Amino acid sequence: MPQNVPEFRFSEGALKVRQFLYEYWCANGRGPNLRAVHEGTGLTREEIIEAYKELELGMMCVVDLSTQNVHVLKAPPFSSYPTVAEVHVDGRFLAYAGCAMESLAVSMMPPLSDKQVRIEGYCACCLDAVWIVSLNGTIVAYEPKSLAIHVSLSPREWNNTNIVHMCDAMNFVFDPEHAERYERKICRRGVVFSLDQALRFVTPTGRSRMWQYDRGPDYMRPQRVLDFIRSLGVDVSGWGESAPKLPGDREKPWARRGTSR
């Protein structure tokens, strides 16, 4: 039941493991194995696995529960495997961000305060390089100037099983023309966020991650997410949804119920 999960509270064990994941990833650029989590939290194998199950249900990580060593695949904003966004800090590669969207939130994390974070990625259409430099959650430079983020899955499809497919659907594109070409390549429509819209989308989560130790679970409520995205001014018609109503827009007389054009 990954969408519309009833509200719940994380146990203290889950909070401990989540905090350790963030601290370990920021320090080492990779996720921890079971022994590292055990040494860092004092929890037993069984307690760690139960914590992972809670955290995955609350959209805080993705773990492979089919493996005996419970491999950690993701702990947003980080990924254990290569993605479209490389995170560089102080001129050195640190880790992979979970996706193009999550990469904008990395510099908001407390261990990276006052450090320039450079995201190196590529356009999903042509694979040419793109980059973004951010500081404390503010984008200070990027290339190309038309850079945007294409999202090919509607929130109605996010987290159907876990966040892996959702993250995979969020990619950099040079501009709307490259976004349209990419859609033809993957045979799927999508929507385009400007960098400003994308940054505003991830900021609520980015500003609470690690700053609030007891922050509760995230829940996938598709309609609420769509409403928030519309409020940013993003045209969501590519997902088959109605476009945002802009200030000053007037209702057409023929659009009222019971009337015809």
Question: What is the structure about, briefly put?
Answer:
31% of the residues lie in helices and 20% in strands. By secondary structure, the chain is an alpha+beta fold. The chain has 2 domains: 10-75, Winged helix-like DNA-binding domain superfamily/Winged helix DNA-binding domain (Arc Repressor Mutant, subunit A), CATH 1.10.10; 80-234, Beta-Lactamase (2-Layer Sandwich), CATH 3.30.450.
List the keywords:
single chain, 261 residues, alpha+beta, Arc Repressor Mutant, subunit A, Beta-Lactamase, 2 domains, 3-stranded antiparallel beta sheet, 8 helices, 31% helix, disordered C terminus
Structural account:
31% of the residues lie in helices and 20% in strands. By secondary structure, it is α+β, with helices and mostly antiparallel strands. The chain has two domains: 10-75, Orthogonal Bundle (Arc Repressor Mutant, subunit A), CATH 1.10.10.10; 80-234, Beta-Lactamase (2-Layer Sandwich). The strands form two sheets. Strands 1-2-3-5-4-6-7-8 form an eight-stranded antiparallel sheet. A three-stranded antiparallel sheet has the order 10-9-11. A hairpin with a 6-residue loop joins strand 6 and strand 7. The radius of gyration is 20 Å and the shape is globular. The termini are far apart.
